[in-house]
C-alpha cells in the first residue's frame, strides 16, 4: 500500500523528486545481479535509473523530450556498459531504444518495477539456471528496460513481458509492471535459447523460414524448461487459417524482406495472416519434428537447418516447388 501511495504522488512532483527519493532510500535503487552456474556467468543489469534520469528531465519540459535526450540518458549508458564489459550487441538494438510521449506513465511504471526488482531478478536467475540444465554456452548479459507505455500489446497480450536477443552475448527484456512471474521466466528461457542458437550457429541474415523456425526452436526449448506454461503466441492457428499461413510462407520461404516478416508477426488481415503467424506455425513445425524424432537432443535440433527440420516434419510440403 505504501508503494502505491508513493507512486501516485510522483506524477505531480518536480523533476528531481524521483531521483532524490532513490538517494534518500524512499525508493529502492536498482540492483545488478551476477551469478555463475554450470560454468556460465550471467549478469542481470537494469536500466531503470537511466530511464528515470530521462523522465525527470522530459516531464519538466516537453520540448526537451527528444531522441537526443533519450540517447544521452538511456541509450548511451547502455552502450557504455557494453563497452565496459567488452560485450557485442550487434547494430540493430537502436530500434528498441526510443522516447515516449507518455513520460509520466513511464516514470510511474519504472518506480513500480524498482519496487519489485527482487522478484524480477530472482525469477530471471531461476529461469537461466533451469535453462542451463538443458543447454549451456558462454557468458550472457541480460539488460532490463521498462517497456514503452505506448506499446499496449505488452501488458494486454504478453503478460507484461517481451524480449529480444541482440547477439549471442546480449539479451534485452522489456518489462511492464503487470508482468507475471511465469511469463517472465518463460520469456527469459526463450531468449536464452536464441542466444545459444546464435552461439552455436553463428550470427547471420535469416530467411523468413529461418526466422520462423528459430522462434519455433526458442518456444520449444522454453516449453521444455517450463512445460506447464502456455504462451499465447504458441497457440494453434485459428481454424481455417493454417492453410493460408502455409501458402504465404511457402511463397516467401527464402525471402529476406523484413516487411514480409512483420506481416507474419503483427498480422495482415488482407492476406489472412493472424497475429504471431510466424511464431505459431514455427512452433507447430518444431513440435511436429520433435514428435517424429523424440531421440534428438536439444543440442542436435538446435543446430538443424530449416530444410532438415521441414523434411523431418509433417510440413515437408513447404519444400516443394
Mean pLDDT value: 92
Main sheet attributes: strand count, strand direction, barrel closure: 5 strands, mixed
Helix content range: 40-55%
Assembly context of the chains: single chain
Strands ordered across the widest β-sheet: 1-2-3-5-4
Quickly give the structural class: alpha/beta
Please give the radius of gyration in angstroms: 21 Å
| Uncertain stretches | 1-15
List the helices and strands and how they pair.
Elements: H1 2-10, H2 17-23, E1 33-37, E2 40-46, H3 48-58, H4 67-85, H5 103-115, H6 117-132, E3 140-146, H7 153-157, E4 161-165, E5 170-175, H8 181-201, H9 208-225, H10 242-251, H11 258-266, H12 277-292, H13 298-302, H14 306-311
What are its keywords?
321 residues, disordered N terminus, globular, alpha/beta
Kindly summarize this structure in a few lines.
With 321 residues, the chain is of the alpha/beta class. It has helices spanning 2-10, 17-23, 48-58, 67-85, 103-115, 117-132, 153-157, 181-201, 208-225, 242-251, 258-266, 277-292, 298-302, 306-311, and strands at 33-37, 40-46, 140-146, 161-165, 170-175.
Amino acid at each position: 500500500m505504501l508503494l502505491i501511495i508513493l507512486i501516485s504522488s510522483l506524477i505531480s512532483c518536480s523533476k528531481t523528486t524521483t531521483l532524490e527519493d532513490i538517494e534518500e532510500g524512499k525508493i529502492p535503487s536498482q540492483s545488478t545481479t551476477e551469478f555463475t552456474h554450470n560454468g556460465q556467468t550471467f549478469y542481470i543489469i537494469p536500466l531503470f535509473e537511466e530511464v528515470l534520469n530521462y523522465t525527470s528531465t522530459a516531464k519538466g519540459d516537453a520540448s526537451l523530450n527528444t531522441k537526443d535526450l533519450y540517447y544521452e540518458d538511456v541509450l548511451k549508458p547502455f552502450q557504455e556498459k557494453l563497452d565496459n564489459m567488452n560485450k557485442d550487441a550487434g547494430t540493430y538494438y537502436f530500434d528498441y531504444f526510443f522516447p515516449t510521449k507518455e513520460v509520466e506513465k513511464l516514470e510511474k511504471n519504472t518506480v513500480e518495477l524498482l519496487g519489485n526488482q527482487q522478484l524480477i531478478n530472482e525469477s530471471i536467475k531461476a529461469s537461466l539456471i533451469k535453462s542451463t540444465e538443458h543447454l549451456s554456452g558462454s557468458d550472457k548479459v541480460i539488460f532490463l528496460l521498462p517497456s514503452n507505455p505506448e506499446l499496449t500489446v505488452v501488458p494486454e497480450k504478453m503478460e507484461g513481458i517481451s524480449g529480444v536477443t541482440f547477439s549471442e552475448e546480449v539479451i534485452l527484456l522489456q518489462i511492464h509492471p503487470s508482468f507475471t512471474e511465469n511469463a517472465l521466466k518463460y520469456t527469459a528461457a526463450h531468449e536464452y535459447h536464441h542466444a545459444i542458437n546464435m552461439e552455436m550457429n553463428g550470427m547471420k541474415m535469416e530467411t523468413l523460414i529461418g526466422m520462423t523456425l528459430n522462434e519455433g526452436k526458442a518456444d520449444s526449448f522454453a516449453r521444455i524448461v517450463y512445460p506447464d506454461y502456455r504462451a499465447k503466441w504458441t497457440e494453434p492457428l485459428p481454424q481455417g487459417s493454417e492453410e493460408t499461413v502455409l501458402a504465404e510462407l511457402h511463397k516467401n520461404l527464402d525471402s529476406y524482406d523484413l516487411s514480409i516478416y512483420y506481416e507474419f508477426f503483427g498480422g495482415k488481415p488482407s492476406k489472412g495472416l493472424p497475429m504471431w503467424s510466424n511464431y505459431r506455425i514455427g512452433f507447430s513445425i518444431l513440435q511436429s519434428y520433435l514428435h517424429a524424432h523424440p531421440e534428438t537432443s536439444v543440442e542436435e535440433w538446435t543446430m538443424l537447418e530449416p530444410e532438415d527440420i521441414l523434411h523431418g516434419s509433417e510440413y515437408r510440403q513447404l519444400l516443394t516447388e
